[in-house]
Automatic annotation (TrEMBL):
Belongs to the nurim family. It is an enzyme of class 2 (transferase). Its main location: membrane. Residues 239-267 are annotated as: Disordered. It catalyses: methanethiol + S-adenosyl-L-methionine = dimethyl sulfide + S-adenosyl-L-homocysteine + H(+). Residues 254-267 have a biased composition (Polar residues). Keywords: Membrane, Methyltransferase, S-adenosyl-L-methionine, Transferase, Transmembrane, Transmembrane helix. The chain crosses the membrane at residues 7-33, 45-65, 86-103, 123-149. This is methanethiol S-methyltransferase. It is a multi-pass membrane protein. It comes from the Bacteria. Catalyzes the methylation of methanethiol (MeSH) to yield dimethylsulphide (DMS).
Length: 267
């Protein structure tokens, strides 16, 4: 019975994420959906700024607070571990829908690009950004990020698996490709309004802070391996000609690792 309920819960939570994510693309892009970042009657500036900042703050607290290992340790005394991640995803999606619903439009124009080619370039970067976000979820482990692996492990009566530390593909060139995707998606618009600008500035500031917390946790989890990775791989912008030096370092790491493994197996 517990397994069936966990399965249903996981599916509902994943469906909520999919809906919140697809809505986010239309909300930020200001198209197709009934309520977007710019739609509706413009309110008074100060109250609108305060409400929008509070909504973004709520998302930041939920998203980063509940992701910390200390919180998870406490939280999993209340909620079963296999559905912890699904609960996180469900609440994050709920907070996003609250934000879409209560967001106060501030549609005064900050910039408006008339040039047709320039507009297409910006829409291209917008699409690239969202594509990058989706792609990187699969590089880390899409199913684990959204709680599905944990539920599968529970149903199959296995120990909960952890995703591997990823240093290949895009993660070979930058440490945070997913966040780079969000930056592109949030900033690339031919019609920047006050409301959209507030959204882009606040989310950028939040991501930069959240990444510090994430990296601290990664250092605690992976120790020297993450420290070395952080030293040689840039945060967002790949360094030209950097790939070769990584290859050399990785080869030497591989050989030193296999050497130490040999030493262990010989002991
Ligand atoms: C929303 S993802 C963002 C990942 C990364 N900051 C990025 O922008 O591509 C956050 C999760 O990814 C994990 N993570 C970050 N870097 C990772 C890596 N190189 N390999 C595996 N997991 C990683 C973090 O531990 C966290 O659980």
């Amino acid at each position: 019975m517990g397994r069936i309920l966990a399965f249903i819960y996981g599916i509902i939570s994943y469906a909520a994420f999919l809906a919140a994510f697809c809505y986010a693309i239309a909300f930020v892009g200001d198209f197709y959906v009934p309520k977007t970042i710019n739609s509706g009657e413009a309110g008074t500036l100060l109250p609108s700024l305060l409400i929008n900042t509070a909504l973004l703050g709520l998302f930041a607290i939920q998203h980063s607070g509940m992701a910390r290992p200390g919180f998870k340790k406490w939280w999993t005394k209340i909620i079963p571990e296999p559905i912890e991640r699904s609960t996180y995803v469900l609440l994050a999606s709920g907070v996003l829908f609250l934000l879409y619903w209560l967001w106060q439009p501030l549609p005064a124009t900050v910039w408006s690009l008339e040039n047709e080619i320039g507009r297409w370039i910006l829409w291209g970067l917008f699409s690239l950004g969202w594509g990058l976000v989706v792609y990187t979820t699969f590089l880390i482990s899409h199913a684990h990020l959204f709680g599905l692996t944990q539920i599968r492990d529970f149903i199959k009566d296995r120990d909960l698996s952890e995703p591997d530390f990823q240093t290949l593909n895009l993660y070979r060139h930058m440490r945070h490709p997913m966040m780079l995707g969000f930056f592109l998606a949030f900033w690339s618009t031919p019609e920047m309004t006050i409301g959209h600008l507030l959204f882009s500035i606040a989310t950028t500031a939040y991501i930069l802070i959240a990444l510090q917390l994430e990296e601290n946790d990664l250092v605690k989890a992976f120790g020297e391996r993450y420290r070395k990775y952080r030293q040689r791989v840039p945060k967002f912008i790949p360094r030209p000609g950097h790939k070769a030096s990584i290859d050399v370092e990785e080869k030497s790491n591989e050989s030193s690792q296999s050497l130490s493994e040999t030493l262990i197996s010989e002991e």
